[in-house]
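[job 4471] stage=fold_predict status=RUNNING
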Amino acid sequence: MTLVQLILEALDSLTSNKLRSALTMLGIIIGVGAVVAMMSVGSGAQSAITESIESIGVNLLYIVSGGESDHPQPLTLEDALALDDPQLAPEVIHVAPVLQDQAEISIPGEFTSASLIAVTPDFFEVQNAEVAEGQRITHAHVEGYQAVALLGTDVAEYLFNTRANLVGQKVRIQGQIFEVVGVLEEAGGTGFQNDDNRVIVPLTTAQQRLLSRPYPGQVDLIYVQASSSETVDATIDDVTQILRARHTKSLGADDFDILNTQSFLETATEIAGTMTIFLGGIAGISLLVGGIGIMNIMLVAVSERTREIGLRKALGARKNDIRIQFLVEAALLSMGGGFLGIALGWGVATLVGRIAAASGNTLNPQVELNAVLLATIFSTAVGLFFGIYPANRAAGLQPVEALRSE
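[job 4471] inference complete, writing structure tokens
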């Protein structure tokens, strides 16, 4: 019997009981759909994280106090000025010291909590922060200790119900009056990573009026931008030598940590990849449940078609012919469920992407070829694996006993 004849005969057997075949395929459909959807969402999340980090640039360093010292010396504005010296660090193009904390932002009748970030003008270069209206924090603002502020779009919307024509408005930050000089462009993000829920003020003003620190000139973080991704290692070496020379209280142990976007990118990619595999593995469990359903239905089919099997054997059919017949039926069930499951997973991934877009997130699920191939191959393998026992049972029936069966 040719393969085409086997397929046609299997289709005839399966369509003789359409409802049972459909319910049998349902487990495979759900399993494959879950695998495709989960892997697509995981891949989209990985791409979103990667793009977010790469948009900052792979040549950006983050310097924080800590290191291996038990009593680290704080980072200061003087440290930032030393790092900005072209004689000491020739590959450094921008240095941006930062103070940050949560603060209450209010106008008469409204108030909200937002991230308060105190910066110098270089902050906008290293963070690619753009202004939709008004102007950035300038050197004049910093040197003049001016009480001016840039609002994130979420803060502007909450306080004023608009993000336009706000230059010149007054807000209170921790009870201190500040003039709005601009509104930032929408950056996106939610929760702890929401860059739209922030207010930016001059660093010197914050040190004097808003964010007190125990050490004179202390800052929480220093951004350092190298001239290119190729000079990052050389820049790290220069920064390390400068800070070691300035921080001499902890001899033999660095009291600072230098992180870079490349390490963040590698870590984020690894975590996202692991989560994608984990989610796909959990979804794959439902494929096994679907495979057990196939085995169950095929065993029922063997019991119902005992006389048919006996008659075919009496007419000369070999054990292998019977075995292949039932394996083809199991494979068709699993492959049919697999194709429908791919369509389901594609639809779910698309729906998730649209929901994310409607809520302002950048998640864009990506249905990749490897996820489709994996789901197809795995679903077929599951059908064949769980079809082996019923097929062997059918092939092992004795013709005489089969024909006597009621």
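[job 4471] summary: The longest strand covers residues 92-107.
[job 4471] exit 0
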